[in-house]
């Protein structure tokens, strides 16, 4: 599944060039690099990536971000099937964000966080439009993507107990967001006190686990509104973990500044 875009007529801080996932990856050779920033991650199988004569293996839950115009090539390992997800983007803000990431020619991530790993598939519908309003929303989503890359690097480099806390919480929420989730349940998973786990999680994601859960549910709700236009609001509310539709509508309006019904009307 893939979508490619034309370069926008007006300057944007960030814009999407192409996005795809569940992609049967063919061999690619770019002696002059790609003209945009390009993120590539493995879903299944294994690929071999070479950047400026530096060879690396890209297995499941591993990814690499290329800076524009950096020579590279990649291909499936031993001719086997290699399925990838990818995102290419550009914009006036890209170079500043690259400095924020301390990006040289490339960044290789040997353990992609669950949230970063699922970003492309979960955001795909948000990018499946080229009107001006949608492109502004896409710019925001791309900024979130760059922040996720930054957080992923911090998770790898920090020395305190953030990986055994943040990663299990993120993973649990991605699988059980439709269910009732409490701080007490998350503490049983991390094996740490609620106070400590929330402090560490907030240091990494700038929000508490339950605030992250609410944000995750809202993003899922938005996707369901787009992909299931005939579903009743109550059904969508239940699908994302709200048993009270009025509370769901209130939270959605706080998050997106519009009600689910209004969002659906103007999407």
Automatic annotation (TrEMBL):
The keyword DNA repair does not apply. Residues 167-266 form the HTH araC/xylS-type domain. Keywords: DNA-binding, Transcription, Transcription regulation. Pfam families: AraC_binding (PF02311), HTH_18 (PF12833). The keyword Transcription applies. GO terms for molecular function: DNA-binding transcription factor activity; sequence-specific DNA binding. This is AraC-like ligand binding domain protein. It comes from Lentilactobacillus kisonensis DSM 19906 = JCM 15041.
């Amino acid at each position: 599944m893939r979508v490619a875009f034309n370069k926008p007529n007006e300057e944007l801080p960030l814009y999407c060039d192409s996005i795809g996932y569940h992609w049967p990856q063919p061999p690619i050779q770019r002696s002059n690099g790609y003209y945009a920033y390009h993120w590539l991650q493995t879903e299944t199988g294994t690929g071999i990536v070479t950047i400026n004569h530096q060879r690396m293996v890209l297995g499941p839950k591993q990814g690499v971000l290329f800076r524009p115009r950096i020579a590279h090539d990649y291909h499936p390992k031993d001719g086997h099937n290699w399925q990838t997800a990818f995102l290419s983007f550009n914009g006036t803000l890209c170079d500043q964000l690259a400095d924020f990431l301390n990006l040289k020619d490339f960044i290789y991530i040997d353990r992609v966080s669950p949230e970063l790993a699922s970003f492309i598939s979960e955001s795909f519908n948000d990018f499946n439009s080229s009107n001006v309003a949608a492109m502004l929303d896409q710019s925001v989503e791309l900024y979130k993507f760059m922040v996720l890359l930054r957080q992923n690097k911090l998770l790898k480099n920090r020395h305190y107990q953030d990986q055994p806390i943040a990663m299990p919480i993120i993973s649990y929420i991605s699988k059980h967001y439709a269910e009732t989730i409490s701080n007490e349940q998350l503490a049983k998973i991390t094996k740490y006190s609620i106070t400590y786990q929330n402090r560490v999680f907030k240091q990494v994601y700038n929000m508490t686990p339950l605030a992250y859960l609410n944000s995750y549910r809202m993003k899922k709700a938005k996707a369901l509104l787009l992909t299931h236009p005939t579903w009743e609001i109550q059904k969508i509310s239940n699908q994302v973990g709200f048993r009270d539709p009025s509370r769901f509508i209130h939270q959605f309006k706080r998050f997106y500044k519009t009600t689910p019904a209004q969002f659906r009307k103007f999407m």
